[in-house]
Design a protein that fits this description.
The protein is mostly helical. It has three helices and two strands. The protein is 34% helix and 5% strand. A hairpin with a 6-residue loop joins strand 1 and strand 2.
């Protein structure tokens, strides 16, 4: 009896691009820069991406903007006459 946990299937670059809402070229660039881990599956651009690695990549890229500075007042448009 096999008691190993079920693993999710690896994703293609096209599938990863669809999740990230970007082009396949952007995913290849992330791989080339070492920002997105991959599993090589062939001799030329044969990449597969582990869904958990993609999730970790997304979590690591999240940005939350916190500003304690008060907003500057909008300048008056002096050239417009009402």
């Amino acid at each position: 009896m096999n008691t190993a946990p079920a693993q999710q299937a690896l994703m293609t670059v096209k599938q990863a691009a669809a999740i990230l809402l970007c082009s396949e070229q952007n995913v290849y660039a992330l791989i080339k820069r070492g920002e997105l881990p991959y599993v090589p599956t062939g001799t030329s651009k044969g990449y597969r991406i582990d869904p958990s690695d993609l999730t970790n990549f997304i979590r690591g890229r999240k940005v939350q903007h916190e500003s304690n500075e008060p907003k500057a007042p909008r300048p008056r448009l002096k050239h417009i006459k009402l």
